[in-house]
Amino acid sequence: MNTQGNVVSAEEAFAKKAERDLISAVKNGDKQAYKQLYELHVGQVYSLCLRLTSDKGLAEDATQEVFIQLWRKIANFNGESKFSTWLHSVTSNITISYMRRQKGWFQRMFNIEDSEAMHYEASASTDAVDLDSYISRLPERARIVFVLHAIEGYRHEDIAQMTNMAVGSSKAQFHRAKQLLQEWMGYE
């Protein structure tokens, strides 16, 4: 049984033990174990990076940065939470920090109204466009807050801390993102 009183299958128990053993090996400097850990999680990390950055090149670079930092900081993982939960939080923080360091970040942050997304014409066939393409059109701050809150489940207090903005700003950016998405998707 797990902590919630649910029965854990033998397969789940084996997978958890295998991951714990892998993490332990990585903490001891085992590069082969690190490669296996990378292969297990690179898809999820890249997906989150892509949603946050809305740019394939930046997402690839941020994913690389996450795994570089993972090698350096894996000792900080204490096993109190699931590894995937910890990695998700690390990925969000590193990606946001990485984006800040990129050329033009401050310009994009403070000139939101001038972004291409604000002038982008909605496609005539909204059924053919998926939610991710709409999300990628959002202004950067609104997109980051929307992804972290609506998709990844972070609280506004956590988002405010991760992005160095006020809680009220996080809520306002989320509201703005929702309004834009509803407008673009024809739900006015």
From TrEMBL:
Residues 130-181 form the RNA polymerase sigma factor 70 region 4 type domain. Keywords: Sigma factor, Transcription, Transcription regulation. This is RNA polymerase sigma factor. InterPro entries: RNA_pol_sigma-70-like, RNA_pol_sigma-70_dom, RNA_pol_sigma70_r2, RNA_pol_sigma70_r4_t2, RNA_pol_sigma_r2, RNA_pol_sigma_r3/r4-like, WH-like_DNA-bd_sf. Residues 37-103 form the RNA polymerase sigma-70 region domain. It comes from the Bacteria. It comes from Fluctibacter corallii. Belongs to the sigma-70 factor family. ECF subfamily.
